[in-house]
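Office hours follow-up: a student asked to see two folded examples consecutively, so here they are.
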Amino acid sequence: MAKLPSTPIWMYPPITTPLQSDRSIMEESMSSLDKESVVNTMVYPITTHKVLHVPPPIPTPSPPEFGENAIIYLTHTHKIIAELVGTYILVFAGCGSALIDQRGPITSLGMAVVWGLTVMVMIYTIGHVSGAHINPAVTIALAVSRKFQWKHVPAYVIGQVIGGILASLTLHALFGKDNLRPTLTLPQGDTSPLNTIIWEFIITFILMFVVSSVATDQRAVKELSGVAVGGTILLNALIAGPVTGASMNPARSIGPAIVAKHYHSLWIYIVAPVFGAIAGSTLYTLLQLPDKYNKDI
């Protein structure tokens, strides 16, 4: 009979190995790189991002052909036509008021008001198209002060002169050629040619000084440009009208002179306004501060 061990059986270590868990088996079969990815997945679970639907971009509409920035799309021909029509309306209304005064007195004040209002209306009507020069002296003066390109000066001046001639032809058809004398700009009374030159030089100087301010200086109130220039025309016509006819505009004088075939003293009303406008534009250019200093004022 076999001898039993003196140590109880329950004191010996178990003879069976513990069962491995599923996780330990999976870890043993994985490489180190796979283990790292699994750990990262457990610690930082992957979240799926929802893809948002991005609508296609809306095409930008093309700028309007006529509107706030219409001046960009205008050709040079449009500007010449605007100057021709603007000068036509100016001469027709202004010289027409002188002819109407022969039938029913509207006085010098009334004629000055007509000239001033017509210029003001034209500035607001075609100012955004061509600049509303409607005056060869203004065009030349702006070019001299480098506010306008010289290459456009001949076409502008020709358009303005043609507008003045067409307006005078219209008045000739309505009132007759013999009645066009009141539309001429001539020295009144005993005014000498020298005095006429001085008068026309000064009043055109004043006009161009104001035009240079409201048209070329960014600090000026643009909304009141028509009122300022129209008011200047009115004042000049009131002062100098009874003395010289207050031309201030070669196109205004050339048109009636050609239709009436009366060229006496016409050169005065061409030369004096041009030099007066150049002087006014040049002086304001000297007074105008550069743009880098304007913001400090």
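And the second, which I mentioned at the end of office hours:
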Amino acid sequence: MYRFLLTRQWVILTLIALVLIPAMVELGFWQLHRHEHRVAQNGRISRALAADPVPAERLTSPGHEVPRSDLYRRVSARGTFDTRHEVVVRRRTNADDEVGFHVLTPFVLTDGKVLLVNRGWVPADGPQTAFPEIPAAPRGKITVTGRLMADETSAASGIKDVRGLPDRQIMLISSGQQAASLGKQVLGGYIEQTSPEPRDGSPELIGEPDHSGIGPHMAYAVQWWLFAAGVPVGWVVLVRRERRDRAAAPASPAEEKTPTAV
């Protein structure tokens, strides 16, 4: 009755089904893990943004690599901006996806160490090779507050660290590179300034990271598991259809021939 399952066609079809089921189950768990990672990440960012600011030197130091657990932590520092050594970070976009520059200004602390401060976004007034017009930073000793960020790398950001750029232009924010350029001790990572806010709205402060959405990963996980459950159901349906079709098919000439009476 089911001898057709031993045919080459059905053996191949059955093997494909046996491979698809665990593969789809695994893809479902992969999407589930992505969902859990996003939920955990959103919670960590939310807690970091809601926490009271702490002194920057409590979380970072020269040569320090900012861990993921400290990303977006609100930190504060007191010192003065060193605008003579200010640089701009090329090809950065604002909230409206306009291409311009980020303004990176060394902030000299009271103990002589330097904290890199991303003061925000400014438009490109001309070609990318031209240094943009940058509003002056506050003068004198002030307290600056911002979100702690890790040094940027090509591997993590996907941005190629191009060499031979115009003077005072960089592609990636690296405390190590700036320490070598300044000849001073630079705290690891940098901060995205949140206060004081510029009086005329420029540079345009960088907005908070998106930490509200969780994405469609859970829905994708359920879909993969439904697909996995549907494979054996589909296989059974095909088997029953094949059996019914074979039973309804006319018998072969050899089978239709009846014995002749002697």
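Two things to take away from it. Residues 258-262 have pLDDT under 50 and may be disordered. Residues 8-50 form the longest helix (43 residues).
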